Amino acid sequence: MKIDVRARNHVTEIGRGERVLVLAHGFGCDQRIWRFVAADLARDHRIVLFDYVGSGRSDLRAWTPQRYGSLQGYKLDMIEVLEALRHEQVVLIGHSISGSIGALASIARPELFERLIMVGPSPCFINDGDYVGGFERQDVMDMLDLMDRNMVGWADMLAPLVVKTTVWPERVAEMRENLCAGDPAIVRRFAEVVFTSDIRQHLPDIPVPVLIMQCADDAVAPLSVGDYLQRHIPRARLNRMAATGHCPHLSHPDETIALIRDELRRPRRAARP
């Protein structure tokens, strides 16, 4: 049976223009978190938004622990959305784990991507020898255990850390609601996949230019992560933001939009053969 990818991933297209920008959400969110950025960029670009299976308004019936037990399933979601829309040479703007997912997708299908813009990315969240990812392995295990015992308590703890703003308290509340919105078993499994993932070995194989947008004070992806990415991705640029927290597109949309537009003004370069 042919899969309706547009329905499965609740694909939304807005805007007009020659260039296609794909906005991919991170863990605990869905495409709505891009609404401020998307509304501005849609003035002169074609915007594609979607929900990974298990998130937002995606078709939960399509979720299986086999496919979505690693980042590979989410990589396939991204590739299949682009194939369904027949888009190539897109600019992928990926938040957090979508930076890693986009990297894997670009390696698998380089013709689909012009460049990657990673917002708050991390190739590995767990500290490993000289690598500082931000969390000890036990920190992650404790977080997953808290999710098992008290999902609301976990969301109450995490939301103000990832949306660090005193100007928009309602956006912290929005994140808290988002974290608790999905099927608890799927959210818990996605969290485990995200926080135990490690794509460091794949970074040298990313075939397209990459902009790393890193917040000044991010409890999830510390400054050391941005430096690591810049050193290990062949054509990477690092831009440290004034924004704080892990979701600048929600807490600091104006700066996020300005930096994305600056990157889009850079000369286009074809992917490596």
TrEMBL record:
The name of this protein is: Sigma factor SigB regulation protein RsbQ
Domain annotation AB hydrolase-1: ranges: 21-258
- Gene3D superfamilies (alphabetical): alpha/beta hydrolase (3.40.50.1820)
Q: Name the InterPro entries on file.
A: AB_hydrolase_1 (IPR000073), AB_hydrolase_fold (IPR029058)
In Pfam terms, one family for this protein is: Abhydrolase_6
Please give the family membership noted in the entry.
Belongs to the AB hydrolase superfamily.
Source organism, top-level taxon: Bacteria
